[in-house]
Every structure is written in structure tokens, then in C-alpha cells.
Amino acid sequence: MPPVLGLSPRTGSLESLREHNLLRVIDVLLERGVASRADIARHTGLSRTTVSSLIADLSDRGLVTERVGDDQRDTAGAGRPPVLLALDRSAGAAIGIDFGHSHLRVALADLSHTVLAEAERALDVDGSAGEGLNAAAELVDEVLAEAGVPRDRVINVGMGVPGPINHRTGIVGSTTILPGWADVALGQEMERRLGLPVVVENDANLGALGEALFGAGRDAQEIVYLKVSSGIGAGMIVGGRIHHGAGGTAGEIGHVLVNEDGHVCRCGNRGCLETVAATRGLLEQLSRTHGTDLTIEDVIGLARGGDPGCRRVIADAGHHIGQAVAMLCNLLNPARIIVGGDLSAAEELLLDPLRGALRRYAIPSAAEDVEISTGSLGEQAEVRGAVALAIGEADRPLMQATGGRFAAQGS
Length: 411
Ligand SMILES: [Zn+2]
Hints:
By secondary structure, the chain is of the alpha/beta class. The chain folds into 3 domains: 4-87, Winged helix-like DNA-binding domain superfamily/Winged helix DNA-binding domain (Arc Repressor Mutant, subunit A), CATH 1.10.10.10; 92-207 and 385-403, ATPase, nucleotide binding domain (Nucleotidyltransferase, domain 5, 2-Layer Sandwich), CATH 3.30.420; 216-376, 2-Layer Sandwich (Nucleotidyltransferase, domain 5). The chain has 15 helices and 15 strands. It has helices at residues 14-32, 37-44, 48-60, 129-147, 186-194, 203-214, 273-277, 279-290, 296-304, 308-332, 348-361, 364-369, 381-393, 397-401, 403-410; strands at 34-36, 64-67, 84-87, 93-99, 103-110, 115-122, 154-161, 165-166, 171-172, 198-202, 223-228, 232-238, 241-242, 336-340, 371-374. The strands form 4 sheets. A 5-stranded mixed β-sheet has the order 6-5-4-7-10. The chain has a 5-stranded mixed β-sheet with strand order 13-12-11-14-15. A 3-stranded antiparallel β-sheet has the order 1-3-2. Strand 5 and strand 6 form a beta hairpin. Helix 1 packs across helix 3 (48-60) and helix 9 (296-304) packs across helix 10 (308-332). The longest helix has 25 residues, at 308-332. The chain is globular, with a radius of gyration of 22 Å. The chain starts with 13 loop residues before the first helix and ends with a helix. It binds zinc ion. The site of zinc ion (ZN) has 6 residues, from loops.
């Protein structure tokens, strides 16, 4: 593979220092999508003058363009909005794949994280992994065709799966939580189907990443994202980075004990948080009084209309989640807790009791530090995080991204 932009990573000369700084500027643009010169200076620690000169260099090469966005707020205060810069659209594209428990979503974005096309499909993830991966490969073909992006411009694919992922092996780390997916080398299997590199990550971690970069957690470094859908998972951003733990299974908050005599959980334990607070658990609790045809959207709608049973199960779920989160707050001291997933549509019906339990069970200082809200990306959080993962983890992204235009000249 030829060097990035004809840059060599050797150190020791002024020229290689400049090359190194160019890469740092590119890294900031890859991570943030769009950024002003001031943002780039802040994130690289380089002077404004140096940044301006580096940007001029990258613009001359056709790699960076000025971008008119809809959130051009001047973070520095008054004055006209700063010019936002982004990597040029021709520099490459990335794909995010999000497997939920009941859906599959795929998004294609350019390297400024702007979504060019997306597609989704209902899917029962508890079925076989092979079926799910095949469906994802079809949706990838669809979004590429829709946006008219050739496959070889895609630098990387990020894929989120609702289960603990072992980071050494890329395999779902539990045979009980996602039985049909256990022992499958998901990354390799998907790479084989797509002919593209694939990074695999837990879905709640991707939701956390999406909200941290583009949503409700944009200005915080310490974030816990809770995905409350038919399962419950937490993604933890610590010091601005996803916290994986030793084997990649950190954040399985759905399986902390809340009731020793409770129902048996799909993980094999009894009385896990999921059994009382995940949407599946809520529907089960309501089946005797409300029948078995309810969806979680129905439950939330009925609760808003004042149905006491539906209000009660949502409030109890909020309370139990708050208990578990209180423990997490004492341990991690996050600045922001962002609730996403299907049940987050209940908003204050869920968050009020959650806050109440948190105040009751967390130490006061930890409870005071934390702000609790629903996510602002809704069901897009995970797939946006998957795109960000793909861009962030691309193997020296620009090497491939510019491969068509720049490396061809040099090799
Ligand atoms: Zn469990």
C-alpha cells in the first residue's frame, strides 16, 4: 500500500513534521466530520497559523473543502459563523450497519459523516447469524446503488450487534445472550460477503459513540448511554473513548440483579434488570391484563393517554433502571446519562422515576453531577455510531480513501 498522500511517516525532519501535522488535521476531520480552523487548532494543539497553512495545503490537493452546514453556530461567541471544513466527498465513503433485536439498518456516509443513503428492514436477530448477515449485505448493495457510490470508494464498514463482543476474537462473547450468533466470526463473515473491511462493536457502545459525537452528549467526555429496547445495554464513554473492559463485554447492565426471586432471564440468571425493564419484560407483565398483541409503541401511547397499568410498568422500569444506574454513577461519575432505544420514546414517563431512584440510591455528589436525558438521534444513534466507528478505525483511512486519486499517481 502506498504511503498516505505520498507522505512518509518517518520523523526527524521539518518536512516529516509537517506531514505528521497534516495527518493530525485529517484525523480531526475524520473524527468530527466538519470542523472550523479554530476547532482543529484546539483538537491538535497546533497554532491557528499552522492550521491555516496546513488547510491551504490540503485544499490545494482537493482533499478538504469548505462546507455549509445547518449548525454553523460560532462556539467562540459573537461574530459571523466560522467557516466549516470537511474532507472532500471524493475522498471516500463509509458504511454503518446496525443490528437491533428486531430490525436491521444500514447507512452510507461520506467522510464528513454526512449520510448519503440509508435503508432498513425488519429482522429477528434471534434467528441465525447467516440470515442476518446476508440481509445486511443486500442492504449495503442497495445503499451503494442508491447513492451511486462505487464499492471501491468505501474505506471501512462498522457493524453493531446487540450482544457482548469479544474484542480479541470479534465473536459474540456469550452463548446465551445471542444464541444464533455465538461462535460466528462476525467480522470475517461480513468481510467475505462484502469484500470490504469490517469492524464489529456492541450496539450500545455505538449508540454511545453516535450520541457523544453528534447528539445529546456532544459536549461531555464522560457519558453513559443506555439502550432500552427488547434488551438493555449500556455504552460507556470514559475520557472521550468507548470503555470496553478487558474482554469487550463491559456495560452489560441489563444483567445486573434487581430481584433475587424474579423471572429467569435469557442469560440464565434470575431477576436481571432486563426481566423487569426491557420492552420484552414490560409486554410480558401486561399480557394478563392487556392481552398479548400489544407493541411497545401501543404501551407508550396508552400510558400517555392515562392507562394506569401501562403507566405503572413504565414507571417501574424507570425505577429499576435508576437503581442500576445509581450504582454505575457511584462507580463512574458520568456527566451525562443518555437514554435511547425503543422505550426512550416514553420520555418523562420513564425518566422521572429513573431520576427519583437515582437520587435515592446514588451518593448525592454523583447524582448532582449527572444530567439525564433521552438521546437526540433517536433510532439513528447506533447506525451513526457505526459510521463513526468505520471512519475512526479505518486502517490509515486516507491511504485507502485517496487510493484512487493520489496513490495511483505515486505508485
Ligand atoms: Zn440476565
